[in-house]
Design brief:
By secondary structure, this protein is an alpha/beta fold. Helix content is about 40%, strand content about 20%.
Amino acid sequence: MNTPYSASILILAGDGIGAEIMPHAVTVMQTAAKDMVELDLVHADCGGCSIDAHGVPITREVIRQAEVSKAVLLGAVGGPKWDGLPINQKPEKGLLQLRSHLDCFANLRPAITFSPLATASSLKQHLIASLDILIVRELTGGIYFGTPRGIEQSDNQRKGFNTLVYDESEISRIAHVAYTLAQKRNKKLCSVDKANVLEVSQLWREIVSGINVKYQDVELTHMYVDNAAMQLVRDPRQFDVLVTGNMFGDILSDLAAMLTGSLGMLPSASLNVANRGLYEPVHGSAPDIAGQNIANPLATILSISMMFRYSLDLPKVADDIDAAVDRVLNSGYRTADIMPDDSTETITVVGTDQMADLVNQELKRSKCENSTSR
């Protein structure tokens, strides 16, 4: 069978468990892509490994390659080895430069509870059973990028200051992304702000509300960020898609992450207007467990699923990956981070290598069955 087209994918394994997981994740990606798309994989350095090899967190050549690639898959960056470097030379600077150069303004963070992992959450099972929410976070504006910012001496003491700022175009484009995604899901959108005290949030709410006339099939609600945090813990299934600014999204997406029981299960996508973007697991480089074959590869594998769905426009391939992960979990296999405290089921703990291999074998089996049935 001839593949319909080819796609260039930049692979940045990064540091710690990112570098450990990536070879296995790439194998899964290649299996999933077979007969659907020809992948042109380019491997390069980013983060601490780039500092060691090239003296900078990311080189201009790698940024140029990212700009011409259909998608970028990143493992993780950072670690204590580079903690002593100035802030503008740390490994994380490479990630920020990637986001900036690609103009990845829309960060998509799903929080999905696979049914076999309902006991892994700290919440009661009935609260998170079948949980499937999506947080859309504006990623290139807000207080993390606003100016002026800094630390200065004032009145015989140091003073730190940052600026929270959003313009209409920044709010509008992230709102359109969130509305479009809500249309493809359950047509419910909750915009999260702090409009009772912040002028920026008042503008945010006004613009998001105004855009609703173009998406009248989507039910729009508004919620203050403090209440949203409480509601995510009290009744997370009331939400479908949430859209919010950079800082609020940073906090709420990490809170939502723990609803599923482990950071090792959480993927993410950061997209630009052309749906090209950066895909990465939510977990960090976890240097304390790197090289021990115990890291969970599923967040990276699920990030690959998002890559097929959003940047390669192959939702069937994404569904196949998600289904393979679900079948492996239903078969009773777990990495250490998602092992239940107590269970009456037969559970088998596996390492990084075996978990990725199990998903890969499930993908091969399903492709073979689909081929036979045609």
